[in-house]
Records
---
Amino acid sequence: MFDFSIVTSWIDEFLRTYLPEFWVLAIEFVVVGVVLLALYCIIALVLIYFERKICAAFQCRLGPNRVGPYGSIQSVADMLKMLIKEIIPINHTDKILFYLAPFFVVCASLLAFGPIPFGRGLQAFDFNIGIFYILAVSSLGVIGILLAGWSSNNKYSMIGAMRSGAQLISYELSAGMSLMTIVVLGGTMQLSTIVENQVDCWYLFQGHISAVIAFVIYMIAGHAETNRGPFDLPEAESELTAGYHTEYSGLQFGFFYLAEYLNMFIISAIATTVFLGGWMPFHITGLDGFNQVMDYIPSVIWFFGKAFVLMFFSLWVRWTFPRLRIDQLLNLEWKYLLPINMVNLLVMVLLVIYGLTF
Amino acid sequence: MKSITNYIITIFKAIYSLLSGMMVTIKEFFTKKVTEQYPENRATLKVAERFRGELVMPHDENNEHACTACGICQMNCPNGTIKVVSKMVEMEEGAKPKKVLDKYYYDLGKCTFCNLCVISCPSKAIKFQNTFENSVFTREKLNETLNKEGSKVREKK
């Protein structure tokens, strides 16, 4: 398979022959930053388009199909609308916190977007506590939501933010523990090593019972963390107008919107990296011809294909189930998911000790 | 002990009901969508027979209609869309003058398409047809006269 580190090391060599160390690093940092930001926005646009088309298909209607062929430029039109809308200054809000809140949410989202391995050699930064870092950084989004609700000077936004805060903090536990189950299976927290360990068999099949349960729990907890699917009470339109982002308009609302879609993608991306093998193709031990064929498909396509399948699941779940009330939400987490998670972790430890994994 | 078995049974029942819900939705995903994209599909459009588009008075090949100018449709119309104007004609020697239809005024702009005129007509003289492209540029063009020039009522046998 094509290894992108050939390209990146060529660029690095090219720069080093002409410039001193400081400038090489500065240029590389800026280029990586710009590429990540561009990728962030492009994935958000593509995702919004797919969400609208797929949700329409579930609801027996066609999605947008007038703007561009099959409505593909609809997302761009929406983005332009969001950019030119007026940012309405509200009277008695806490101005600093009000303007700061969307930045927290987007920055937390971008920080979690960084270490995801998009393909062979396409990982922005890779350190030996990868999973721990991702869990830590995705919790920073809660601050943004609480700030938004508090500073809006609106009791309904405040209620929405408090509910969202409770929900996020509770489900962080489940998400973290299910990822710990995989760390037990893999023996490492470094994302690139986790992906490379799945070259023969994805972790979902290696740690059979335990990994499947951990996968399901991680998907449920991931949805609840990103206020998505049947867990979107804090932004339920019929209940709290728009919850914590009611008072925001224009680009600030655009940030919340963007961060929500990208968080959904990040949850799917981390689930594919950890459970479904990241950019590794689907190999079956023993069938060498099949493995050769699978190797021809580029790693980036494997990664995005798997992430999109998981996002299709996410949309499927969203348009099937009714919304959960806040007490049912917290009930689900503390009484069902957390005990199952703990037992599952124990089962995985036993499986690894007795060597019963594949 | 019983509460633990209840707990586990609840979990499995919940999983089963969630999955059966998802089966319903995925079938919906693959059904053909019924949205009709109107101006583009004009060539192959099929409108239902019973769709109420425009009121007409059917005339046969002898230019005869069935309206006896009884005025029941005018009485039943909720907002005065129909105006039946009748005239008395002289019959042959001896018989009394008879009332026949002179003009049948129908205002498409005011009609509520409630179908009360059609179902209350005793001679089945008027009916709705399913043409729906009736837009014009001035309201006056919507005032129609439903009986044609020179037509007369069909004689009852």
---
Amino acid sequence: MAGLSELASRLRAELGAAKVIDDRQELRTYECDGLAHYKVVPGLVVLAETTADVAAVVRACNDAGVPFVARGSGTGLSGGALPHADGVLVVTSRMRTILDVDRDGQRAVVEPGVINLHVTRAAAPSGYYYAPDPSSQQVCSIGGNVAENSGGAHCLKYGFTTNHVLGVEFVEPSGEVVEIGGKAPDAPGYDLLGTIVGSEGTLGIATRVTVRLTRAPESVRTLLAGFDGTDAAGQAVSAIIGAGVIPAAVEMMDALAIEAAEAAVHCGYPDGAGAVLIVELDGPASEVDAQFAQVRELCEKAGAFEIRIAADDTERALFWKGRKSAFAAVGRISPDYIVQDGVIPRTALPEVLRAIADLSSESGVRVANVFHAGDGNLHPLVLFDDAVPGQAERAEEVSGAILDLCLEHGGSITGEHGVGSDKAKHMPRMFTADDLDTMQLVRCAFDPDGLSNPGKVFPTPRLCGEVPGRHRGAHPLVEAGLAEQF
Amino acid sequence: MTGPAGVLDALRQAAGGHAEQAGDGDAVDRVPARFVAAPGSTAEAAAVVRIAAAEGLAVVARGAGTKLGWGTPPRRLDLIVDTRRLDRIVEHAAGDLVVIAQAGVPLAALGERLAGDRQRLAVDEVVPGTTIGGMLGTGVTGPRRLQAGAVRDLVLGVTMVRADGVVAKAGGKVVKNVAGYDLAKLVTGAYGTLGLVTEAAFRLHPVPPAAAYVSVRVPDAAGAYQAVQQALHAQFVPAAIELDRPEAGGPVEVAVLVEGTEAGVAARAEQAVGTLGDGAARIDRPDWWGALPAGSDRSVLVKATTELTGTGRLLEGIDRAAAAAGTTAAVRGSGGVGVLHAALPGTDPAAVAAFVKALRDAAPAWQGSVVVLAAPPPVRSEVDSWGPVSGLDLMRRVKEQFDPDALLAPGRFVGGI
């Protein structure tokens, strides 16, 4: 379109031709992120190398009224980086310099394209690591982590991206560059950082990120326990948490997920297990030893028929291999599958798993369950064969019904994959129109023209010119007694 | 509504009869209020705020009133919303380590309730009497922040009444949730300028069976920095690293808290003694632990932050600023987090202003900020309480969206927000 070709010319002039892609074939490379069944070929791609590049693109988009979408490694699972057909995709993967590893200050400063695991690698020689560890940590970028507030297996004890990001250099949707937070805590003013992290690219683009480095633990101990089924494994988790132990990670897989993992990576989990639990403790050796014995006992009491203890890092890696490969492994037992991401209060686990099993048997749609059991974050994998007419639709229905279960139990429609393109339609099931309207006040403050990653997170955009206060004018007392309407 | 009597009637009806004319004791930083309303539910709070919106009343929320002197004085004030009838612990899901409590619940009362299940909200009661609402509004934290995080890290969701009286929720009651914007963090530390929080959900922690304190006395700022650094980089995992310096330029006590199992804590406390070096010893909880620095003649409270490599320089900076201004400062705080508090005499406003300016001028060297939390009115009028704010323009736009008529705590926050 004409607007985009003018924009392309401007950007070539400002940034250099090598950073601007408008060749249709090349643009196609960027048509999706990790959620591959949503595909949109971007209007234009810019490979940004500096903050100035990002600011220039955003300013140009702002001038032209053209939407822009930021993309890091493109590993997201909710279509958060799905391009806009008439917009610019701002790719930050060339911005991958680790600017500062400050061991004494327990901080690192990195560019947004830096790979998550590379931060840990850079910090490891001084005995530190970057705690948030999404399963995609070998390829996903810090910029994407900031956008999605990424979690990971170890966030039960250590928290999410939002608890580990202390500052960002940020390009506002107007093109202004602003510093928010930094190495010191509690910058005066609103906690804009807390709002930006997890906003899925809808408030602007982070171009530099200050993260917390965590001291590597003295001791890490991991056990793998086999149970007859998920009920018994769930009881073990409840007993562990009830005993006041907060493990670094508690992961569960059910029989179908184990079958897939065995087929894919031969992880050698206990024969005949209807569920396995991976429990990892870390910290000072004296604490870990005391609690590890307790955890082992609690697993036995809950009915574990086999418990293995990782003798070394190699064996620990093997335990984790099955778990970390589970999503991809499901490809071995089913041509197609949906990765769902929902959250329930942990104590509702047995009930919800039974309900998922019922859904599965009623519909004939197989569901493999993999989850962060400690914090109630479920990842049901809904299996189907797209070649069989009607299966995809049935799988979608089951997947949606699982989210209903999560909401019925007071949970969330997403624990770590984000809302993105995929779940915007589900937001009204979790939030009222007033809740969503209130969130969009923030959007209007940052991005009044709605140019930054439009169409994500919210099912319908708010017109920022609207005067808030729909209740004004009505006599307040008319409504004063109507408590039930809230 | 016809006149003040009509407004009061309306407020009474909205708040279940709990509204009255304000008295002298209801002034905020000497700014008098006209009415006090005490809603007993979110719906009543919303009805009260709708009246304020319709009548253009400026509103300040008040819990126990322990930190009403924090933040700059309101530009104008009509209505105090007293949250103390919002005193229910709505839900304690012990198995999920989650609690939902209303804004008026005192932090101590919540603590007592949770203790029965050997759980806690890991926020220290730095200011005795603090309610959940006051804790959220100011974001005040104490020693346990090092390991458990700040208030903003522990809050999972909020129910709030917007300036236009609309009730909105954000977040949820599960520990893991990335659906929508995290407004709970936005309103934490916002001094009530974005909405009236009526209810909040928090992540809880188990109470560890054992705890130990280890402390060392060092002669100066450099020694304190060294002790804090050694504790930070050790592997015994301190729950808190605090320091106390009663007089600028004087000796410093650095104390470390270790929490965990009986066996683990015994071993780790030994490690801590070794780490902190000569003169370090296990002690009972220091009497200054978890309290703000104070003193009968110290009415000014300043919060100063630093990067973790700047703790020593910040302590020295406070010495220099105090000496140059001809005042004195007692310093206490979370050396392991980078947040220190200084208490100064409030008798000489010019001296306080000079201290704040000198410290603020030096603070970029340790990437820190300097905020005057509490001060007597004559001092307030002499100092810039908040100092420079990065991102102020964005913050103003956020305020403009949430509260276009500036009815919520106008003037209490940064940049006159």
